[in-house]
Task: structure prediction
Amino acid sequence: MSDLQTYAAWEAGLKAMGYTLSATSSQGSVLFSCESKPSYRLSRFEPNPSTAMWMKRNNVVDARCADSDDLDYYDRTSDLPEFGPTERQFRIVDVVQGSEAWDRLRARPTASNFGRIVSPAKGDYSDQATAYAAEIVAKRMGLYTSPPPSYWMVHGQESEPFARAAYEELNGVEVQQVGFIVPLFTDVYGGSPDGLIGNDGMIEIKCPKPESLIQYHSNGVCPDVYKPQIQGLLMISRLPWCDFFAWHPGLNPFQIRMYADDHYQTKIANAIYRLLEEVERIEASVKRNPDYVPPNDDEEEPEIIITGEIE
Result:
C-alpha cells in the first residue's frame, strides 16, 4: 500500500479544498463533506457491497488510505455523528409476510428474485433480468397479477411455522420473525428473511418434496439455486451467516451454515444497478391507461413509506 496517500495527506488536501470532517463509522472510515461537491469516504478498506451502493447513489467518492498510524479515527471523531453500519446494519419494515402491504413492498428487486438477475452458480447477469424488470414495472403500475401458487408452494407456506419450531428446538435458539428488511442507506431493494438469530445471523427455511430433501442430504451442500437469495439477504443485512434449513415432517432436517461471500455479493450489487437501469428504461417507454380499473380494484391502495427503525 506504499503507493497510497496516508490519512494525514488526504485530510490536508481535502481541507485545503474546503472540506470538513463530518461523520465517522465504527467500522473504521470517515466522511469528509463540502457543500455542492462530492463527499469523500476515507478508509483503509474497500466498502462492502451495501455501502458501495449507498455511496454511488449519494455521490460519495471512495478514497483509500495507506495503513498508517495517522488513521486514529476514534480519537479524531469522537464528537461526530455516526454514519455507516451500527449494531444492525439494516432496517426492519413492520409488515406481515404475505399481506397486501408486504406485497406492495415487492415492487422493487427482492432477494427471493435475485436468482432471476444473476446465474446461481457464478453470479453472472441473467437473461431473465429483463422479464423481471418488466414485472417490477407492472407491479409499480398496479397491473401485475400473481400466478396461482403450486401445491408445493402452499405446502411450504403452511409448513414453515413447524420447520421454524424444529430449528429452534434443534439449535436451542429463538428465531425473530420479521416482515421485510432493507439496507441501512437505501430502500431500492430488500428481502424477507425467514427469521433472524439475535444479531448474529439468520435462517432460510425450505419445505421441499421428500425426494428433494433426500437429495440435499445425499449431496451435503446447499443447492446452488438458493445461493442468490441467501447471499442477497446477507448482503442486505450485512450479517455474517445464514443457516439453510430444509424440513419435511417425514424426514430428518437438512441444515448447513452459509457464510457471506463478498465477491458474489458484489456481483449481485452490480446486477441490481443494471436491473434498475432497465426498469427506468422500461418505465420511460410505457404509460398506464388512466381510465383502466383492474378487477376488484375498488379503492386506491395507500402508499407505503419505509421508515423501519434500526434495531
Observations:
- Strands lie at 20-25, 29-33, 39-43, 60-64, 90-93, 180-183, 195-197, 201-206, 241-246, 254-259.
- The longest helix spans residues 262-285.
